[in-house]
Amino acid sequence: MLTVVPVASAERPVQRYDHVASASVPSKVSRVSDQPTIVLHMLPPSHPCLTVIAALEHKGLAYERNVLVGGEHNEQIEAIYGAGKRTVPGILLGDEPVHGSVAILERLEQIAPDPPLYPDLIASEVREAELWGDREFQDLGRRLPFGAMHFRPEAMGSFGGAGALDPPGVDFAITYARGAWRYHGITAERLAEDLAGLPAKIDYIDALAGAGIVGGEQPTAADLQIGATVLVLLTVGDLLPLIEGRPAERIARSWFPDYPGAIPAGAYPAGWVPAL
Ligand SMILES: N[C@@H](CCC(=O)N[C@@H](CS)C(=O)NCC(=O)O)C(=O)O
């Protein structure tokens, strides 16, 4: 999930994903011969960054992680990738800037076709599902956790891997969650709609799995795009009954390491999470 939300204090409430990366660390993946150098600009908890990491590692491409500082990343990314491009992930492929998870996966497929993320027989269906994952599903990995933490700000401690927050920590979490609501355009009405619409999205992932577009023995680009968002949703206890045991959960757990953190069930107002 991600976002670094502008808040009153520059200090972040929690530090997470120290195990994922530290600034400018070469990955351990062995390098495909003749590949260009690859530098990934990322923020650690970002789920589209996890999509790109999974793709790089699945293809066995060596790369360097350049972990940006939250709050400074927008200007840094814009300086590298061009006007209006202010989000992570981006990669530098040699000197060539490629911005955004969908464009990156497509470009990685060109430089390293095997193993394919867009298998020939289902390539157009995979692209369609990947775009759905990027445009319609990915934002839920931001709005649903931050939506929950407005009602349960103390859960920002367990969500961020910091454990229980002390009262000043909860004050910070309250401010942070408010900033996140503003930043992501979350309102109670929108959150309730997001929650009401989630079962249909999980059903759609079931249908994609039934059609062999996701959930196979090897990941497609759609698995990596959709799975990273599901991974974040699995941290929200209230959402587990909608996802557990479904292809969506299997996809997320198959292609990604655990996403630490938990928002205990009971966060959203009663009745907002649809009953199955
Ligand atoms: N759909 C884009 C979304 C990128 C995106 O929104 N990234 C978030 C991190 S998950 C970001 O950089 N947020 C920082 C910000 O908006 O300031 C992609 O997949 O590349």
Mean residue pLDDT: 90
Please state the overall shape, judged from the principal axes of the Cα atoms: globular
Give Rg in angstroms: 18 Å
Structural category is alpha+beta
**Total count of strands:** 5
Order of helices and strands: EEHEHEEHHHHHHHHH
* Low-confidence blocks of residues: 6-23
**Helix tally?**
11
Straight-line distance between termini: 25 Å
Q: In which range does the helix fraction lie?
A: 40-55%
Number of structural domains:
2
Bound molecules: glutathione
* Biggest sheet overview: 5 strands, mixed
> Main sheet: which strands, in order across?
1-3-2-4-5
Strand content: 5-15%
Write the layout of secondary structure elements.
Elements: E1 25-26, E2 38-42, H1 47-58, E3 64-67, H2 73-81, E4 90-93, E5 96-99, H3 101-111, H4 123-137, H5 140-151, H6 155-160, H7 167-184, H8 188-210, H9 221-233, H10 240-243, H11 247-255
Parallel strand pairs: 2-3
Antiparallel strand pairs: 1-3, 2-4, 4-5
Bound molecules: glutathione (GSH).
Describe the protein's architecture and organization.
This protein is an alpha+beta fold and 276 residues long. It folds into two domains: 25-116, 3-Layer(aba) Sandwich (Glutaredoxin), CATH 3.40.30; 131-255. 48% of the residues lie in helices and 7% in strands. It is built from eleven helices and five strands, in the order E-E-H-E-H-E-E-H-H-H-H-H-H-H-H-H. Strands 1-3-2-4-5 form a five-stranded mixed sheet, with helices on both faces. Helix 1 (47-58) crosses helix 9, helix 5 (140-151) crosses helix 8 and helix 5 (140-151) runs parallel beside helix 9. The two termini are 25 Å apart. Residues 6-23 have low confidence and may be disordered. Bound molecules: glutathione. Residues 2-3, 46-48, 74, 87-89, 100-101, 134, 138 line the site of glutathione.
